[in-house]
UniProtKB/TrEMBL annotation:
InterPro entries, per the entry: Homeodomain-like_sf, HTH-type_TetR-like_transc_reg, HTH_TetR
Phylogenetic lineage: Bacteria, Bacillati, Actinomycetota, Actinomycetes, Mycobacteriales
UniProt keyword annotations, A-Z: DNA-binding
Protein name per UniProt: TetR/AcrR family transcriptional regulator
Domain of life: Bacteria
Length: 208
């Protein structure tokens, strides 16, 4: 790894430790449910010490929540990057949905834990769950508000419509990670459903 002249080697090293610990948590989740994961499991997989762990995270939950936020941020970035605003609106929907479920498939253990275990972890977990949902909603509204989409006859999605779509996508996500449904199968169902809802909004706009 090359450090730029302005970089603080200590900060760079700490960032590396933090990433390794989150990766260790992800590996531990692939082997056991979160309730059974210990800090010892994480540091063993990360090849670090407990002292290093506590320099980066307050406790086990802090590391877990940081991992979930990191994975979700990566997923949203991949969805945003996959959508070509020059494409037709139906193709943009396919690009976004495909990118999302491809990202889900790349992090099955983390997403499975998010779906199954996060809701039972109390108030901080509720906040963590709602914040990424709001970020996803904002992403969908933003993707629908481009000049290309307006040219195609769309007004930006309302927050409520985007919330409806995100809720459906989350349910389909649960099918992938809990029932081991093939991602390709789920993508086709999700693309069809999202296209229908967005297409209806376009029809209503045209009729107004």
């Amino acid at each position: 790894m090359t450090v730029t002249p302005d970089a603080d080697p200590t900060d760079t090293r700490r960032t590396g430790y933090r990433r390794r610990l989150m990766d260790g948590m992800a590996e531990a989740l692939a082997a056991s449910p979160y309730r059974d994961v210990t800090i010892g499991d994480v540091v063993k997989r990360a090849h670090t010490s407990r002292r290093t762990f506590y320099e980066e995270f307050r406790d086990r939950d802090d590391c877990y929540f940081a991992l979930l936020r990191s994975v979700h941020s990566v997923m949203l970035a991949e969805v945003a990057a996959a959508v070509d605003p020059r494409s037709g609106w139906e193709e943009q929907i396919r690009q976004a949905v495909t990118a999302y479920f491809t990202a889900v498939a790349a992090h099955p253990a983390v997403i499975r834990s998010w779906v199954r275990e996060l809701p039972s972890l109390g108030d901080p977990a509720v906040t963590l769950a709602s914040r990424p949902r709001d970020e996803f909603i904002n992403l969908l509204v933003g993707l629908s508000a481009t000049d290309e989409m307006r040219t195609a006859g769309f007004h930006p999605l309302s927050v409520d419509t985007a919330r409806f779509l995100v809720g459906g996508v989350e349910e389909m996500t649960a099918l992938v990670v809990e029932d081991n449904r093939p991602v390709a199968e789920i993508v086709e169902v999700a693309v069809e459903a999202v296209t229908a809802v967005v297409g209806l909004a376009r029809t209503q706009t045209a009729d107004a």
